[in-house]
Amino acid sequence: MSTSDSCKYMTVIEVGSDKSYKNVMINLNDVDYIESENRRLVYYIGDKRYLQITKLSEMKSVLNEQDGFVSLDRTNLVNLNKVKEYDQNLGNVYFDQKSESEGKRSFTTIAKIKQKILSPLIHRAIAQNLGLQRTTTVDSQNKQRLFKQPEQE
């Protein structure tokens, strides 16, 4: 059997000898064997055991706000670096901008209870993602505009 030079890495949970858990990256080419244990994959490298991350709660410990990821409700973990629009009325964040054709858009939801807390963070992320300055102005129709193009110097 030939071995490939390409490496494939995966973030997994290392099970310590004292039953402690730690998130680590493993090279899948280093894996001796993989077993299924209680409906979960277990990777073995030498005398070490690594559990595959299968739950959102486990992924939250790997990807956190420092990485740009925030849980907007109990069913998601959102990369704020990818959010382009936020509809507070519908409670949706969108990962693409509204187009004239209004085709299907990629979005996820934000829990009502988290909207007030996370709205400023989401708006800052959108402004940064779109290269806009965050402002708060009210136009003649009493609609709040949160972003404007930066002034050219």
From TrEMBL:
It comes from the Bacteria. Pfam families: LytTR. InterPro entries: LytTR_DNA-bd_dom. Gene3D superfamilies: LytTr DNA-binding domain (2.40.50.1020). GO terms for molecular function: DNA binding. The keyword GTP-binding does not apply. Signal peptide: none annotated. Residues 24-119 form the HTH LytTR-type domain. The keyword DNA-binding applies. Keywords: DNA-binding. This is LytTr DNA-binding domain-containing protein. It comes from Salinibacillus kushneri. The lineage of its organism: Bacteria, Bacillati, Bacillota, Bacilli, Bacillales.
